[in-house]
Structures are given as structure tokens and as C-alpha cells.
């Protein structure tokens, strides 16, 4: 499910649906099921959302940071 949500998030980014991409990425990250080999995909969404300065970017970055910390 986490991989599917990351796929969805990346597809939504391409369509410039950033709010929806952020939501899908957040669901993937918070599931705790993102494989280390897929962290770069989550980070791609985080960076895109931050670049556009969406209000949700801080929460998404925090979730991503927690994901990285757990994996180490």
C-alpha cells in the first residue's frame, strides 16, 4: 500500500496536483511500510511540496525525517 501511495503521489506531482500528492505521500510515510529503497521517492514529493511552499510541507518533512530516523 505504501508503494502504491508513493506511485500515486509521484503521478499527482506530474499533474501539478500538489495538495493531493502531499496527502498520498503522507499516507505512505505514516504507514511505516516504506522500504528504504523507496525513500528517494518520498523525498521527491517532499522537495516538490517545499519548493512550492505549501503549508503542508512542514508536516510532510517532519514525517519524512521520522521515517529516516527509524530506518537508521
Global shape: globular
Element pattern in H and E:
HHHH
Distance between the termini: 22 Å
Helix content: over 70%
State mean pLDDT (0 to 100 scale).
94
Number of strands: 0
The computed structural class is mainly alpha
Q: How would you sum up the major sheet?
A: none
CA gyration radius, whole angstroms = 11 Å
Strand content: under 5%
Q: How many helices?
A: 4
Weakly predicted, low-confidence segments: none
Give descriptors for this structure.
72 residues; mainly alpha
Task: Give a written overview of the molecule.
- With 72 residues, the protein is an all-alpha fold.
- It is 75% helix and 0% strand.
- It has 4 helices and no strands.
- α1 (2-14) packs parallel to α3 and α3 (39-51) packs antiparallel against α4 (57-71).
- It starts with a helix and ends with a helix.
- The model has no long low-confidence stretch (mean pLDDT 94).
Summarize the structure.
The chain has about 70 residues and is mainly α. The protein contains 4 helices and no strands.
Tell me the layout of helices and strands.
Elements lengths: L1 H13 L3 H13 L8 H13 L5 H15 L1
Amino acid at each position: 500500500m505504501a508503494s502504491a501511495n508513493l506511485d500515486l503521489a509521484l503521478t499527482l506531482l506530474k499533474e501539478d496536483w500538489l495538495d493531493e500528492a502531499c496527502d498520498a505521500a503522507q499516507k505512505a510515510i505514516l504507514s511505516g511500510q516504506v522500504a528504504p529503497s523507496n525513500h528517494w521517492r518520498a523525498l521527491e514529493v517532499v522537495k516538490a511540496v517545499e519548493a512550492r511552499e505549501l503549508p503542508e510541507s512542514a508536516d510532510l518533512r517532519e514525517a519524512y525525517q521520522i521515517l529516516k530516523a527509524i530506518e537508521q
